[in-house]
Amino acid sequence: MKQEWQGRDRHVGYEQAFERAERDPEGFWMNAARALDWITKPTCAHDPATDTWFPDGTLNTCANAVDRHVAAGHGDRVALIHESPITGHTTSFTYGELLDRVARTAGMLASGGVKKGDRIVIYMPMVPEAVFGMLACARIGAIHSVVFGGFAAPELAKRIEDSQPVAVLTASCGLEPGRTIAYKPLLDRAIELSAHKPAACFVLQREQLRCDLVPGRDRDWQTACDAAAAVDPVPVASADPLYILYTSGTTGTPKGVVRDNGGHATALAWSMAHIYGIGAGDVFWAASDIGWVVGHSYIVYGPLLAGATTILFEGKPVGTPDAGIFWRIVDRHRVKALFTAPTAIRAIRRADPDGEFIAQASLDSLSALFLAGERADPDTLLWIAAKLGKPVIDHWWQTELGWPAIATCFGLGETRIKPGSAGRAVPGYRFKVKDEAGADAAPGTVGTLLIEQPLPPGNFRALWNKPERFREGFVDFAGHYTTGDAGMIDDDGFIHIMGRTDDIINVAGHRLSTGQMEEVVANHPAVIECAVVGAADELKGEMAVAFVVTRAGTADLPTVKQEIVRMIRDDIGAIASPRDVLFTDALPKTRSGKVLRNLLRAILNGQELVVPQTIEDAGVIEALVALAAPGSAPKNTV
Ligand code: COA
Ligand code: AMP
Predict the structure, then answer these.
(1) Are 441 and 586 within one domain?
(2) By C-alpha distance, which of 385, 274, 404, 400 is closest to 9?
(3) What does the pLDDT average to over 431-435?
(4) Lowest mean pLDDT across 244-248, 328-332, 624-628
(5) Pairing outcome for strands 494-500 and 504-507
């Protein structure tokens, strides 16, 4: 039996790994690439001329995530566990079963005319077929674009229009606590809205709610899959796109982050061993959704590339059925590392403040809890660390990067954390903080957080359809990648994230654009102007609040408010529901007409107000403070 390559040098600590990646990135990443099976082995790691990783290497990501584990004799090892407290079902697939399902799903795609390089949109709930679909695309070199199931039809339409898929994979419904969401009408509406029409839709019929199929376009997933022959993996170039994942930018148009194959697989395999301390046969659980980057990297590709067992969770941290579900799953499947968003822990704490459910479970298998997606407030982090008695590790990354850039590298033996900091730079990443004048900020000083180029493998190099936007939108005059976050590096090299510098907010770990919400609110006929900002929220970290100026004579504000909330839910999705809509006579602006969103945010959060000299009308601020400040009774909210 072939010895499994764990991709981990057990004699190297964090400092050495960091230094090695800094001094000899070629050697460091060529060594990391040995964790994969290459069809053509790369002869070099990075090509500066094209900024590609492993430029002459070819491989197949699906073969690395599935086939090779079976070939190495581990076909009986559990690859995927679907835990669905919403339906009451737990289903497991061994690597051998996963291979069979994925190869036949690839056959189903091929029967629909899908070829290498074609795009496939996946709009699905958290069911195993969604994972089969992603891996099947990778298998035949098609480029998947998974759209989070919580997005409404217009958002799905934007992604269909931009990525121009040949086919869409979907299901008849998604299940949220207490309600069944019919996906098919949302997909039908999105295709109606989009100028691009996919040729085929494969529809998984779920027993909770079946749907009608459009003749000539829609095909029943099960029937098509049963009729399909298994398809082998095809070789793709390392730099060929594996997937597109749309994420919020500052405008209403989402950005299609493009991920490559070779750099991505190398980086994820390295991270599983050295950040999470996970190897073949371990059980890893990222309690996220496949619609987000965390789901792509750490529900699907990362754990499977490592030969580990991954858990796909169709439920919520609380209410399905209670706040003990996380700990019972850890106990039942002997989970070694759990990854979730701080919001989930805040929700659990609210429901189980004394940690009674935690005490009831046997958590001896758990080595650490990892948190990301939003700031881990020290209070929450220390609470859960005390209740679990295990290391709790905050770490920071973004859709654009694809894997953690700031962390405590637990797999390298690090456990030192500083609550309030996301950790230190992960080997391969070189961070800088610049002040407003563009100079290097002194340690301990907050500024714009940048990463020196070239970015390590796995990070994005381009946006789909807009290759030039990488340079225009993300790279500063000195060639650094601008993260969009403000941060500070302390004397010990720990990096503290202070929040976004743009119009992006984080609601329950979900990245949303307030600019996009403003575009929706401004479409209401009674609205003259509006500004949407993020207000601090005890549970979700942040929630949107809309400040709205209505046309003279608008009388029925309660109805306007209801309509605005409805428009945001219908156009973007329920996850973007604003916490409040506040009606005001005017918005605070500079003399040049720029809306002072920072000031609105400070008013909402009860922070000290720094009012610029250039403000047009100081009276506006007084009125807004009375309207929105915490503790004050909102006067004209409805
Ligand atoms: N499909 C359809 N609708 C969805 C959805 C999906 N996949 N996910 C969420 N929604 C809907 C919800 O049903 C809810 O609708 P409602 O306003 O009609 O009730 C709305 O979007 C907001 O959902 P959510 O953000 O999940 O809030 P919640 O109040 O239902 O639950 C928490 C609160 C804290 C339990 C939940 O936000 C949570 O689990 N957070 C952790 C998030 C996480 O893991 N993020 C991953 C980043 S690593
Ligand atoms: P996303 O692209 O959805 O992963 O969101 C990325 C953004 O989420 C980052 O730019 C940060 O603003 C925020 N974020 C992610 N992880 C953390 C963290 N550990 N601490 C603070 N903010 C975080």
Answers:
(1) no
(2) 274
(3) 95
(4) 624-628
(5) unpaired
pTM of the predicted protein model: 0.95
The CATH number assigned to the domain holding 253 equals 3.40.50.12780
Taking all residues of the chain, what is their mean pLDDT, rounded to a whole number?
Answer: 94
**Residue 127: what residue type?**
V
Rounded CA separation 303/272 (Å): 7
Cα 535 from Cα 521, distance rounded (Å): 17
**How many independent structural domains does the chain possess?**
2
- Residues 506-564: tens digit of each pLDDT: 999 999 999 999 999 999 999 999 999 999 999 999 999 999 999 999 989 999 999 99
Structural tokens at position 377: 């407030």
Q: Best mutation site among 371, 374, 395 for ligand 2, i.e. most ligand atoms within 8 A of its Cβ?
A: 374
497 within domain boundaries: no
Do 91 and 188 share a structural domain?
yes
The count of other CB atoms within 10 Å of the CB of residue 558 is 10
Q: What sections of 24-123 are H helices per DSSP?
A: 25-32, 61-62, 68-69, 95-111
Whether the pLDDT of residue 636 is over 50: the answer is no
Query: Which whole number is the average pLDDT over 183-206?
Result: 98
Atom of ligand 1 nearest to the CA of 573: 21
Nearest C-alpha neighbor of 527 from the set 536, 515, 516, 519:
519
Rounded CA separation 360/583 (Å):
48
Q: Per DSSP, which regions of 478-622 are E strands?
A: 481-489, 494-500, 504-507, 510-513, 527-537, 541-550, 580-583
Q: Cα-Cα-Cα-Cα dihedral of 97, 167, 466, 60, to 10°?
A: 30
Residues with CB under 6 A from ligand 2: 247, 293, 372-376, 394-396, 398-399, 422, 484-485, 497, 500, 506, 511
The answer as to whether 632 is a domain residue is yes
User: Ligand 1 center to residue 394 CA distance, Å?
Assistant: 21
Determine, yes or no, domain membership for 384. no
| Ligand closest to the CA atom of residue 507 | 1
574 lines ligand 1 (CB under 6 A): yes
- Residue 467's pLDDT band, with cuts at 50, 70 and 90, is confident
Please indicate whether residue 270, judged by its CB atom, sits closer than 6 Å to ligand 1: no
Q: CA 338 to CA 535: how far, in whole Å?
A: 28
pLDDT score for 630: 56
In a domain, 9, yes or no: no
- CATH number of the domain that residue 526 is part of: 3.30.300.30
Q: List, in order, residues 6 or more apart from 179 with CB less than 8 Å away.
A: none
Q: CB of 270 within 8 A of CB of 3?
A: no
Among 101, 111, 42, which Cα is nearest to 67's? 101
**Residue 475's pLDDT is what?**
82
Q: Which domain holds residue 617?
A: 519-637
Report d(CA 45, CA 184) in Å as an integer.
44
